[in-house]
Amino acid sequence: MLPDSLLPLPTDLALVVAILIAAVTMFAVNRPRMDVVAVMVIVALPLTGVISISEALAGFSDSNVILIAALFVVGEALVQTGVTQRIGDWVAARAGRSEARLIFLLMVGAAALSSIMSSTGVVAIFIPMVLRIARSAQIAPGRLMMPLSMAALISGMLTLIGTPPNLIVHGELVRRGEEGFGFFDFTPFGLPILVLAILYMIALRRFIGGAAVIPPDPARRSLGDWVDEFDLAHRVARLRVAPGARATGQPLSALELDAPDRPAVLAIERNGSRNADIIQPHPDTVLRAGDVLMIDVAGQEGTPDASLNCWGLVPLGLSGGWFTERAREMGLAQAMVPPNSPLAGQSVAGARFPARHDLSVIGLRHGARPVPGALRDELLRPGDTLLLMGTWPDIHRLRDRRGEVVMLDLPGEADDVAPRARRAPQALLVVGLMILGMVIGVAPNVHLVLLACLALGLFGCVTMTGAYGAMHMKSLVLIVGMLPFALALERTGGVDMAAAGLIALAGEASPRVLLAAIFLTTSLFSLFISNTATAVLMAPVAMAVADSLGISPYPFAMTVALAASAAFMTPVSSPVNTLVLGPGGYRFVDFVRIGLPFSAITLAVVIAMVPVILPF
Prior knowledge:
Layout: H1 11-29, H2 34-47, H3 53-56, H4 63-80, H5 83-95, H6 99-114, H7 119-137, H8 142-154, H9 164-175, H10 187-203, H11 223-229, H12 232-235, E1 236-241, E2 264-271, E3 276-279, E4 292-296, E5 313-316, H13 321-325, E6 330-336, H14 348-351, H15 353-357, E7 360-366, E8 369-370, E9 385-391, H16 392-399, E10 406-409, H17 424-440, H18 445-458, H19 464-470, H20 473-482, H21 484-491, H22 494-503, H23 511-526, H24 531-549, H25 554-565, H26 575-584, H27 588-613
Antiparallel strand pairs: 1-4, 1-5, 2-3, 2-4, 6-9, 6-10, 7-8, 7-9
């Protein structure tokens, strides 16, 4: 007589399995798009009669889906405030030109942070930073996104709170009267696996696949191109207010810069507590020792500081590269004077750009011809192109205005500018409190993240447009579409049938073989349903196996937890993988090629180490 696990499948279970196989097949051939396949699953499952259409659509209200969407908003706030930019710069600076060192730093950082907060949240926050690093370092995003997701998954093997399956297995142990796991009981297993993962990804980085190097847009010109075109290196000079100089403590108006023979001050560099700030000059701006004046010396006779040397100003060098080095604080923009502009017929000085827009005109082109010499008395004509200099917020404000000028172009560096950089302290405070609340457990994670989103919007760290645009709907729809499978497989008895077959092996196999079987079964379920749902289903099964053998349940419980985090093999086995699918440009088969061998490595480590550290 055949065991129950080998009997023909019931009709309803056969239908669910058929839909599952069809979905996985379409994922594998990448036709149609994965989010379209997810919608097809939502439509098909209710037709079997196993679940209702309301249950198929329940994923749209699932707290984990809402959590992921909200974490995208948190990540966008960190992008707009420049936090991810600074982290990316630090990582890139430490990595240098070494791609291997970059992968190491990314994986260590992601694993460390994910061990104390949601790995899905960490990946959502890291994605824009990794894309920026890939673009600036000319590295294929596909070589970085999968290492990021793998490190985030392994973080669940480092601490008790690293992933929900750990807490589920711990809770099952406590429910059965055991002490459960300690905070760092997972670390002896997770650390070796993380080290092996880093070495594995570094060794195979050229075979990962995914998106290629992001080429620079040939239509976008850089600041350096504009510096050369308008000859700014010879038009602009820098003068520093030396300690004890006569100019110290004086307003700019005292320098009589309105006189025709005096150079115009374009901007002031002022050293702050951490770095130099760029401030717009006004007549009542009081100069301080150490301030650096940027002046327009075009058309001036003699040395650049000849008319200002009585004030104790020391000339400094200015190369064309200065604009590129300060691209985050100071920007350039090209704007055209339209035919109906009130500026037509006025002089550059009469247009009063510094007073009205906090922008300086440092270049002018009549048609295709740049105007040499001083610009102050040059008359503006319809169709003229102005080169404007100022801070990025001031440039963006002018772009939103109509009538006087029409913004033509921004340099390529504008894409990397954080428009809300001054809100970075508030963003860090909000995110820090959010993480602390998650660690302490003062409220459900989704509640804390939604509160963080509201606070970030209140402090001006993210706009509503940016928040909605940050949500990766393709990834969210894919997750929602796969959630109903857990309920359908459980309701049709598919999970119970697999568990019964596993328990039937208890009397015929050694404990190590059973550990391997539990690991493989957990990994198999995690291919199609969430690792959290897998842990809920497999934890009681694993402990029942231990009971049948009369041995400790701890090694079996640990194996379930570790296997639930080893969801490397498909992009739908974990939200972490799903998130990097689009940005990394991966296909379904890319995860199989890279994830399957490393899952085998993880299995070997688990079977070798678990019985040693947690004896039977």
